[in-house]
Design goal:
The protein is an alpha+beta fold and 478 residues long. It is built from 19 helices and ten strands.
Length: 478
């Protein structure tokens, strides 16, 4: 091997790293040499000086190996894996599959970067074992992550491996076949009263107008956070106020009420004011270059909105703060590539975006959590299942609909429940809920089922509890 330096010990060499450092000096890796049963020259890596390995230690290991070899006890060499690493597989998954996902896979990318990559990016997929994954699961839980979060992280890994197997990039069996995913008990029943909801929205609005709009839409439609943040411009039909939702259980359409429609309308206006050169993401040298080429002050460049730039005409129409007059600045050929790069990053068809036009994450939001605590909705020591989280808005919508007397099957359709099992948690709020338990699975027709419900309801509570429209419909259907 190139770069090997002999030590004073027989058959022991050291390699000095060009990049890795330890104690202020280049780190050293120790190897010993030997010949295998075929008389081929081999190297065996012992370890780095930063791992407390010394030349003497490497010499001792070589002596143990040579003694074992003479006695016919030579350890079998582990076959080096030439398979794809998890990090390489993830990059393929990202390129091929992310375009099919809501938010372009933003949440998956975040979970991978924060949790999975540090431990598994360089690990060959065929070397990932079920036991290792069980240890990883426990590690995440001990860090304080919720079982639902751990389930998402492991689920992402499982999806990557399954896709690699499907695409022929991994031939083995998925280690997840032998791994038990964390059990999640998140059956929340807490919902907000009208006054609590108003107070929460008012508090959120003080911190973030964007999250006020997102929360308003969810509260008035029962939509999931990912469904709101994943909404694209063409998902809204202005003529009919119909929202085409792309949810995790498939597509559905709902007609928006005034509050939800007005929130979307305002969000569409706000997206024009996306700041192009987002603070912290653009180097100061780039800001200065844009300033020099356009004539804008550096501070103006930092507050330049997307709606101010006309790439087709090659101009910027901008009004400085505390000025009533708009001025036109030219985008020179020298600076045009910079604008093309950053305008492209900001130009998204998503209605809600983060800083610089990036997708909004569909996980827990600090603004919402802080606002709920400020309202007194989440006092210290509250049971986690009673805590007000963003998903509480969805439960609140369903609960309010049930209280109004909206049939459970309709609520299920409105909010995209795959089955009515999820919707049944709101059954106790429905005016005719007690009678629904009398529905017979063996009834010959829906009319017989309805008759059973109505008979019981009239007997227990009186006919005035039955909406006249229901009585009319049953009479006509019969």
């Amino acid at each position: 091997m190139k770069g090997m330096i002999k030590t004073k010990f027989v058959g022991v060499y050291r390699y000095v790293s060009d990049t890795k450092r330890f104690d202020g000096k280049p780190d050293e890796c120790f190897y010993y040499s030997y010949r295998d049963e075929d008389k081929k020259f081999r190297w065996h890596k012992v370890g780095w000086r930063s791992e407390k390995v010394t030349a003497q230690y490497a010499a001792d290991k070589r002596s143990e190996f040579m003694v074992a070899a003479r006695n016919g006890e030579t350890p079998k060499r582990t076959k080096k894996s030439n398979g794809i690493t998890f990090g390489q597989g993830y990059e393929v998954f990202k390129e091929k599959w992310f375009p099919n996902l809501k938010n372009g896979g933003y949440d998956i990318a975040l979970r991978y970067r924060v949790h999975t990559a540090p431990l598994f990016a360089n690990k060959p997929v065929d070397k990932i074992t079920p036991l290792e994954l069980e240890d990883y699961k426990l590690f995440l839980l001990k860090k304080g992550l919720a079982p639902a979060s751990v389930r998402l992280i492991l689920g992402d890994m499982r999806n990557v491996i399954n896709k690699l197997k499907k695409w022929g990039l991994f031939k083995g069996e998925s280690p997840f076949q032998q791994v038990d995913m964390p059990k999640v008990d998140n059956a929340r029943t807490r919902f907000l009263s009208r006054s609590e909801a108003d107070l929460l929205l008012e508090t959120i609005n003080r911190h973030s107008r964007k999250w006020f709009l997102i929360s308003t839409i969810s509260l008035n439609t029962g939509a999931r956070l990912s469904e709101v943040t994943g909404t694209k411009i063409h998902d809204l039909q202005p003529e009919t106020r119909v929202w085409q939702i792309r949810g995790k259980t498939g597509r559905r359409s709902i007609t928006l009420n005034d509050a939800a429609w007005n929130a979307f309308t305002e969000a569409l206006e706000r997206r024009k004011r996306i700041i192009i050169f987002t603070s912290g993401q653009v180097a100061q040298d780039t800001i200065n270059f844009v300033s020099q080429e356009t004539g804008l002050f550096p501070t103006d460049v930092k507050y330049l909105h997307l709606e101010c730039v006309d790439m087709e005409r090659g101009v910027i129409i901008y009004r400085r703060r505390n000025s009533a007059k708009y001025r036109t600045y030219r985008i020179t050929e020298a600076v045009r590539p910079v604008f093309e790069e950053w305008v492209s990053k900001c130009s998204s068809d998503l209605i809600f975006t983060g800083r610089g036009g990036i997708p909004v994450g569909s996980s827990t939001n600090k603004t919402f959590d802080r606002s709920a605590s400020e309202c007194g909705l989440n006092p210290a020591g509250i049971d986690p299942l009673d805590k007000v989280v963003f998903h509480t808005l969805r439960h609140t919508y369903c609960s309010w609909e049930a209280i109004k007397g909206t049939p459970l099957f309709k609520i299920a359709r409105l909010v995209g429940h795959k089955t009515t099992t999820m919707t049944e948690r709101y059954a106790h709020l429905c005016p005719i809920t007690e009678s629904q338990n009398l529905i017979s699975k063996d009834a010959d027709s829906t009319i017989e089922q309805l008759n059973a419900i109505l008979t019981h309801l009239i007997k227990e509570k009186g006919i005035e509890q039955v909406p006249q429209s229901v009585l009319d419909w049953v009479d006509q259907a019969g």
